[in-house]
Task: inverse folding
């Protein structure tokens, strides 16, 4: 079987990481995967190409003219690659697949993938809201609509997405890659000048409204524990981000925060953390939380997307946009002691292994492809 994945952009975020894991893992079923990247070739495509996965980067503008050009390019690629299944990853890609059904000479089954919820819909740009509404209108044409959480499915179906072929497949994780590594504790601390007795809190996420960095920094600044250090990772989360640096300076915590920007191998940092904290105001199935737990790191999360489902009973869950509640939970976590944090982290790892192992999730995707093909091109 050939599957062509069409993704809005290879930006290094959670969707890209999940797609790379899935495309590699699908080989056990004999699936030949290729990727159409609607964004520019910013270097991330090499991660796929190094894994033997072909990538076309179209670098199209998010405009009507750009979308028309994208449909033409995608149709041409489909006619050349001849996939049985074309799967869209997020809203713009889903729209292009609808156009390619008209422009392509090939027959294929189409699947959509929705990677997040609609908690922050009103705060998104007007163009993005139009694209989401376009998805809702055309959703009846999708052979399957795969959501990464049940909450996301319910939100989108209430919004107007077709419920006929909606289904939920969570993200899957390679727990042999994301695993506890006690040796990294001293390595990371020596590299960044972190004291042996300092408590290291981590956060991963591109600089975006949805990730709630403002609330995380406000919560961290309110901590009385001066031994706490915060390490922030993600595209745009670095010293060149003047808005972010100004916020840290204004709140007086700049010296206790490390801004590392985008990192290609977070599995070499996560195991060194004492605690992971997600401050998102909107999520789908947050990779970073599951990856932290897989590394044995206890977590504090906001109640959005699948965050509660992942952590519930094994960490702290607070309402989004509430820096006071987040700060109180951080303080509580720092008080429970290293032994309890490690215990929660180990229980979290067991949950990831049992519920979200990559092989299990891959099998579910493959069955969805088979079912869509059996129904015929839709």
Result:
């Amino acid at each position: 079987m050939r599957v062509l994945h069409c993704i809005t952009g290879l930006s290094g975020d959670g969707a890209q990481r999940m797609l790379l894991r899935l495309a590699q893992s699908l080989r056990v079923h004999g699936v030949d995967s290729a990727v159409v990247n609607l964004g520019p070739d910013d270097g991330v495509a090499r991660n796929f190409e190094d894994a033997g996965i072909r990538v076309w980067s179209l670098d199209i503008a998010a405009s009507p003219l750009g979308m028309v050009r994208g449909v033409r390019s995608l149709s041409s690629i489909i006619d050349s690659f001849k996939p049985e299944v074309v799967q869209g990853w997020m809203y713009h890609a889903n729209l292009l697949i609808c156009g390619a059904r008209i422009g392509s000479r090939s027959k294929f089954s189409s699947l959509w993938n929705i990677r997040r919820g609609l908690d922050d819909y009103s705060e998104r740009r007007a163009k993005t809201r139009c694209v989401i509404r376009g998805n809702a209108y055309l959703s009846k044409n999708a052979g399957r609509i795969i959501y990464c959480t049940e909450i996301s499915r319910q939100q989108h179906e209430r919004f107007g997405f077709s419920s006929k072929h909606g289904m939920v497949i969570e993200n899957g994780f390679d727990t042999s890659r994301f695993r506890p590594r006690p040796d990294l504790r001293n390595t990371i601390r020596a590299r960044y000048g972190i004291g042996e007795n300092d408590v290291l809190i981590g956060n991963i996420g591109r600089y975006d409204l949805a990730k709630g960095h403002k609330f995380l920094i406000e919560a961290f600044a309110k901590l009385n524990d001066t031994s706490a250090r915060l390490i922030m990772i993600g595209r745009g989360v670095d010293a060149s981000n003047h808005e972010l640096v100004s916020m840290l300076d204004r709140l007086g915590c700049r010296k206790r925060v490390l801004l590392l920007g985008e990192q290609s191998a977070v599995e070499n940092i996560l195991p060194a953390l004492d605690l992971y904290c997600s401050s998102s105001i909107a999520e789908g199935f947050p990779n970073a939380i599951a990856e932290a737990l897989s590394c044995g790191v206890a977590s504090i999360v906001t109640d959005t997307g699948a965050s509660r489902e992942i952590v519930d009973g094994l960490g702290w869950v607070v309402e989004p946009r509430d820096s006071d509640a987040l700060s109180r939970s951080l303080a509580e976590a720092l008080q429970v002691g290293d032994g309890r944090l490690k215990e929660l982290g180990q229980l979290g790892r067991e949950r990831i292994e049992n519920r979200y192992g990559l092989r299990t999730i891959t099998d579910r995707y493959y069955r969805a492809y088979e079912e869509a093909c059996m129904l015929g091109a839709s």
Summary: DSSP finds 14 helices and 13 strands in the chain. The chain has two domains: 2-172+357-375, 183-355.
